[in-house]
Amino acid sequence: MEAEAVQPSDALHRAIIVGYGPVGQTVTHLVRENGIEPTVIEMNLDTIRRLRNQGISAIYGDARHRDTLTSAGVHTVGNFILSPAGLHGCEEIIRLARELNPSIRILARSTYL
Fold first, then answer.
1. Alpha-carbon gap, residue 68 to 53, rounded angstroms
2. What is the CATH number of the domain that holds 29?
3. What is the span of the domain harbouring residue 101?
4. Using alpha carbons only, how large is the chain's radius of gyration in Å?
5. pTM for this one?
6. Is residue 4 one of the residues assigned to a domain?
């Protein structure tokens, strides 16, 4: 299945958020308040069910895998947010996201400056 073509302004109003811990929850709340449609990538099935019941798009999977990013719609979003600090494999996640969508804006939380 091919990714649907999205206008640049539409893409800027969509974001993928990796992780739904305390920071991911706050980021999801903030982007929704600002008219940005989030899709959360999470590895806890209970959290996925809860998010979907709240009307929030949620994908179960590991963001280090191409098919997970594709399922989350990385081709059609303007923003990609890594919420966990010290996430193992974040370099690979960023590389894949950039490969699949060269114009994506990536924000990553870090433990140290």
1. 20
2. 3.40.50.720
3. 11-108
4. 13
5. 0.86
6. no
